[in-house]
UniProtKB/TrEMBL annotation:
The keyword Oxidoreductase applies. Keywords: Monooxygenase, Oxidoreductase. This is Quinol monooxygenase YgiN. PANTHER family: ABM DOMAIN-CONTAINING PROTEIN (PTHR33336:SF15), QUINOL MONOOXYGENASE YGIN-RELATED (PTHR33336). GO terms for molecular function: monooxygenase activity. It comes from the Bacteria. The keyword Ribonucleoprotein does not apply. Residues 2-90 form the ABM domain. It comes from Parasphingorhabdus marina DSM 22363. InterPro entries: ABM_dom (IPR007138), AI-2_Isomerase_LsrG (IPR050744), Dimeric_a/b-barrel (IPR011008).
C-alpha cells in the first residue's frame, strides 16, 4: 500500500475556495482504480491548515492518479490559490496487527 500525506495552509480569503476544490478532487480520486481512501481534514489546532490522507493499492495506482489531467489541473489550481505546492510525503506501508509490534 502507498500512503500519501500532504498539508496546505489557507487564509480566510481563500479557505472556502480551497476546501471546495479539495472536496471535488477527493471525491473524483476515490472513484479511481486503486484508490483505497482519499480524504481532506481540517487541523483542530490550526484552522488555517488542511491535511490530506490518501491510501493507494500500489505505486502503479499512484502513478496513474498523478497522470490524470484533472489531478494535474487540481495541483495547478491549488498552487495558484495557496502560492506554493502542498508539502507532501509518499510512503510504502504494510498493515500489521498490534500483536506484530510485540514481536522481536
Amino acid at each position: 500500500m502507498i500512503i500519501i500525506s500532504a498539508t496546505i495552509s489557507t487564509t480566510s480569503a481563500n479557505r472556502d475556495a480551497i476546501i471546495a476544490l479539495c472536496r471535488e478532487h477527493s471525491a473524483r480520486s476515490r472513484a479511481e482504480s486503486g484508490c483505497i481512501s482519499h480524504h481532506i481534514h481540517a487541523d483542530c489546532e490550526d484552522s488555517s491548515r488542511l491535511f490530506f490522507h490518501e491510501e493507494w493499492q500500489d505505486a502503479k495506482a499512484v502513478a496513474a492518479h498523478f497522470a490524470v489531467p484533472e489531478s494535474r489541473d487540481f495541483v495547478k489550481q491549488l498552487t495558484s490559490l495557496v502560492g506554493h505546492r502542498p508539502d507532501m510525503q509518499i510512503c510504502r506501508a504494510e498493515t500489521i496487527s498490534p500483536a506484530d509490534l510485540a514481536r522481536p
